[in-house]
Amino acid sequence: MQTIQQEIDERTNLTSSNKLELLLFRLGDDANLDRNELFGINVFKIREIIPMPTITAMAGSHPHMMGVVDLRGQIIPVIDLPAVTGCTPKSGLNILLITEYARSTQAFAVESVEDIVRLDWRQVLSAEGNAAGGMVTSLARLDGDNSDRLAQVLDVETILRQVMPSSEPVVDPASIGPMVDIKPGTVILAADDSVIARTMIEQGLEAMGLPYLMCKTGKEAWDQLQAISAKAQDEGKTVHDRIALVLTDLEMPEMDGFTLTRNIKQDPRFSAIPVVIHSSLTGSTNEAHVKKVGADAYVAKFVAEDLADALRHALGAVH
């Protein structure tokens, strides 16, 4: 336990290009396949790993909510992750993963913690459309491109929305502020791998009157950007006549938001396009990384008003 905790503390400073650290854990036997599958979560989301403490049950809570734990004076909700995913732990719920997601802290109960692996985001493939319930955002090939050993990367946004609906962000058009005018013919190019996050982003952009093109991965956004640029050039225009701003998540299969931003800012065709990073990975370390790759703004998920303010500021800088 102590070794893994030390690795988390050390590796949260990871700045490798298009790489991530994945904490692997097990939840028990799958109800359908009778196998004990591996699951993963980005190390950047892990604040602490502790043995299972005493949990206080909360009256009237969701069936998958175990209760709350008092961790050094902070009351933290505890989610039964095996129950959420339909798994049955053989040895019980032994470990709590204390996580920081966006502006909130929560704990996930798991059966066991296995290892931390360093992967290239190209080893992480989108699972959208292939996972029942939409709780798995991607699949990580643990042993390289030809590996059949996979870890399921869970969609925290979807799980929290299911178990803690009161924490679901709300987009109130009245609080977004006035509509935003951008150059006619241009759009916001947005990228996020979470279905829930994309829905929230789309509602926010629509409330601001901003046309958009939505992508599911950083690689898809990068490919779209190059294709749009080529088409604009054929029409005697530039990419700036088509793209007003890029809005990107950080954690995405195939290409993360750090790499997407770096690619944009290092390419003379795109470097003047403002890039806003919108992520659940909060904290000073991540904000320092954002500045290092040249992003124009960083905003934590998900407060619609904060996102609107960041977009207005970034768009105003180019007009």
Structural summary, described in words:
With 319 residues, the protein is α/β, with parallel strands linked by helices. The chain contains nine helices and 17 strands. The strands form three sheets. Strands 1, 2, 6, 9, 10, 11 and 12 form a seven-stranded mixed beta sheet that branches. A five-stranded mixed beta sheet has the order 3-7-8-5-4. A hairpin with a 5-residue loop joins β1 (19-30) and β2. α5 packs across α9 (304-316).
Secondary-structure topology with pairs:
Elements: H1 2-11, E1 19-30, E2 36-42, E3 46-51, E4 65-71, E5 74-80, H2 81-85, E6 87-88, E7 95-101, E8 104-110, E9 112-120, E10 124-126, E11 136-141, E12 150-154, H3 156-163, H4 173-176, E13 187-191, H5 195-207, E14 212-215, H6 218-234, E15 243-248, H7 257-266, E16 275-279, H8 284-293, E17 297-300, H9 304-316
Helix pairs in contact: 5-9, 6-7
Describe the structure concisely.
28% of the residues lie in helices and 32% in strands. The chain has helices spanning 2-11, 81-85, 156-163, 173-176, 195-207, 218-234, 257-266, 284-293, 304-316, and strands at 19-30, 36-42, 46-51, 65-71, 74-80, 87-88, 95-101, 104-110, 112-120, 124-126, 136-141, 150-154, 187-191, 212-215, 243-248, 275-279, 297-300.
Calculate the terminal CA-CA distance, rounded to whole Å.
Answer: 53 Å
Instruction: Give the overall form.
Output: globular
Radius of gyration: 20 Å
Q: Can you write the helix and strand succession as a string?
A: HEEEEEHEEEEEEEHHEHEHEHEHEH
* Total strand segments: 17
In terms of structural class, how would the helical and strand content be classed? alpha/beta
The mean pLDDT is 84
Beta-strand level of the residues, as a percent range?
A: 25-35%
- Treating each run of at least 4 consecutive H or I residues as one helix, how many helices? 9
Largest sheet report: 7 strands, mixed
Helix content: 25-40%
Poorly predicted regions are 8-13
